[in-house]
Write a structure and sequence with these properties.
heterodimer, A: 221 residues, alpha+beta, 4 strands, B: alpha+beta, 9 helices
C-alpha cells in the first residue's frame, strides 16, 4: 500500500482541484492517476472502487474515498486544518460551504454548453461581488486577524484563496474592492507549501481548456 | 436567549428537513420561526443574520449558523452521531454525501418545469434503483451490522431513513429488492425518538403541495 494518497480523476480541475490545493497546503505529497478514456472509468467502476460509480476518488490510509466533501473533511481533520473544537469547526464549515457554492459554479463553467456561458459568467461575477466576497471581507474586518477562524490557518483559508484566484481568472478586477481578501491571499500564497504549489510544474491544474473539456465529455458520456 | 435551537426557514421540507430529522433523532427539542413573507426574509437579511443571505439558518449555542452541512455536522458532533474517530467520520461523510446527491435530485423536482418532470422522475428512479440503494444495501451486507458505520447509530442512518421514506413516496416498489435496507428502515423507525417524530403532530413536514409551492414561487420569486 502506497504511503501517498492517490487521486483518481481526469487531467483537469473539475471537482478534484480543491483536494489538490488542500493536500498541497498541508504539505502532503500525492500521486495522480488520470482517467483518459471511458474504459478507464469503466475499469474503476468494475473494480468496485467507486461507491457511487463516480470520481473524484482518493485512495488514502487504506480507504477508497469518494464524494469531494468527505475527502476534504478527512484531509482537513488529519492535517489539523479544521479548527480546535466543535464550534470552530462549525464556523469553518459554514465558511467552506459558502466557498463551495461559488467554486462549484466556477469549476463547472468551462464545461457548460456555449449558449449558457454568458449568463453563467454574469451570475458568477454578481455573486462574487455582492454576496460572497463581502461576506468574507466582513469576517476578516470583524476580528482583524490573519486568518478566517481561530487566528490560524484552516481549510477555509485555503479554499477561499483558491476561489479568489479562480474568480480573478474570469474577472480580473474581482478583488478591487476587497483589500482584506487581497491581503489574505498574499499571506496564504507566501506560506512555503502554497508558494511551492503556485509555481509552474506543480500539480496545480490550469483553467480547463477546450481540449480538457472534450476529454472529460468523452470519459463521462 | 432560548436554550433550544431555533430553526429559521419556510414551513416546508426544503433544505431544513434533514436538520429537523437529526435533531429529533438526537432527542433535541427545537423551535421554529417560519418565514411566511418576503418581508420576513428581508428582515433576517437586514439584521445581518444570514451570512450568505440564505436560509436554512439555525441559532444554536450562541451561533447563527447557515449552510445545511455546517449545521448538520455541528449537531452530529455535539450529540455523538459522527462516529468514534476520523476514519469512521470519513465513511459517514461519504455515505451521507451520496444520500444528499439523491435527495438533491428529488428536491429539484418541485422546481422542474412540468414538461421535464417525467424524465426527471425516471432518472431519479433509475439512480435510486441502480446506484444509490444498491450501494447502501452492499454496505449493510458487507458487515451484517445493525447500522451503517461502527455498529452504532450515526447521522447517516437517519439521513438514509429519511431518504428511503421519500423514495417510497415516489414509488413504493423501489425498496422491494433491498431487504437489508427495509430491515434498517424498520429498526430505525422503532427507535423511541424516531418513532415519536414519525407520529402525526410532530415537527416533521409533509410533502410540499402544488398550490402552496405556486404561492411561494410568486411571493419569493424563484
Amino acid at each position: 500500500m502506497a504511503g501517498k494518497p492517490v487521486l483518481h480523476y481526469f487531467d483537469g480541475r473539475g471537482r478534484m482541484e480543491p483536494v489538490r490545493w488542500l493536500l498541497a497546503a498541508a504539505g502532503v505529497e500525492f500521486e495522480e492517476k488520470f482517467l483518459k478514456t471511458r474504459d478507464d472509468l469503466a475499469r474503476l467502476r468494475n473494480d468496485g472502487s467507486l461507491m457511487f460509480q463516480q470520481v473524484p476518488m482518493v485512495e488514502i490510509d487504506g480507504m477508497k474515498l469518494v464524494q469531494t466533501k468527505a475527502i476534504l473533511n478527512y484531509i482537513a481533520s488529519k492535517y489539523n486544518l479544521y479548527g480546535k473544537d466543535m464550534k470552530e469547526r462549525a464556523i469553518i464549515d459554514m465558511y467552506a460551504e459558502g466557498v463551495a457554492d461559488l467554486e462549484l459554479m466556477v469549476l463547472y463553467f468551462p464545461h457548460m454548453p456555449p449558449g449558457e456561458k454568458d449568463a453563467a459568467l454574469a451570475t458568477i461575477k454578481d455573486k462574487a461581488q455582492n454576496r460572497y466576497f463581502p461576506a468574507y471581507e466582513k469576517v476578516l474586518k470583524s476580528h482583524g486577524q490573519d486568518y478566517l477562524v481561530g487566528n490560524r490557518l484552516s481549510r477555509a483559508d485555503v479554499y477561499l484563496v483558491e476561489l479568489l484566484y479562480h474568480v480573478e481568472e474570469l474577472d480580473p478586477s474581482a478583488l478591487a474592492n476587497f483589500p482584506l481578501l487581497k491581503a489574505l491571499r498574499t499571506r496564504v500564497s507566501n506560506l512555503p507549501t502554497v508558494k511551492k504549489f503556485l509555481q509552474p510544474g506543480s500539480q496545480r491544474k490550469p483553467f480547463d481548456d477546450a481540449e480538457c473539456v472534450e476529454s472529460a465529455k468523452k470519459i463521462f458520456s | 436567549m432560548s436554550s433550544k435551537p431555533v430553526l429559521h426557514y419556510f414551513n416546508a421540507r426544503g433544505r431544513m428537513e434533514c436538520i429537523r430529522w437529526l435533531l429529533a433523532a438526537a432527542g433535541v427539542e427545537f423551535e421554529e420561526k417560519f418565514i411566511e413573507s418576503p418581508e420576513d426574509l428581508e428582515k433576517l437579511r437586514k439584521d445581518g443574520k444570514l451570512m450568505f443571505e440564505q436560509v436554512p439558518m439555525v441559532e444554536i449555542d450562541g451561533m447563527t449558523l447557515v449552510q445545511t452541512r455546517a449545521i448538520l455536522n455541528y449537531i452530529a458532533t455535539k450529540y455523538d452521531l459522527s462516529g468514534k474517530d476520523m476514519k469512521e467520520r470519513a465513511l459517514i461523510d461519504m455515505y451521507a454525501e451520496g444520500v444528499a446527491d439523491l435527495s438533491e435530485m428529488m428536491g429539484q423536482l418541485i422546481v422542474t418545469p412540468p414538461d421535464q418532470k417525467e424524465a426527471k422522475i425516471s432518472l431519479i428512479k433509475d439512480r435510486a434503483k441502480n446506484r444509490y440503494l444498491p450501494a447502501f444495501e452492499k454496505v449493510l451486507k458487507s458487515h451484517g451490522q445493525d447500522y451503517l458505520v461502527g455498529n452504532r447509530l450515526s447521522r447517516v442512518d437517519i439521513h438514509l431513513l429519511e431518504l428511503l421514506l421519500y423514495v417510497e413516496e415516489i414509488d413504493s416498489s423501489l425498496l422491494a429488492p433491498f431487504p437489508l435496507l427495509q430491515a434498517l428502515k424498520s429498526r430505525l423507525s422503532s427507535l423511541p425518538n424516531v418513532k415519536k417524530f414519525l407520529q402525526p403532530g410532530s415537527q416533521r413536514k409533509p410533502p410540499t403541495d402544488e398550490k402552496a409551492l405556486e404561492e411561494a414561487r410568486k411571493a419569493f420569486k424563484f
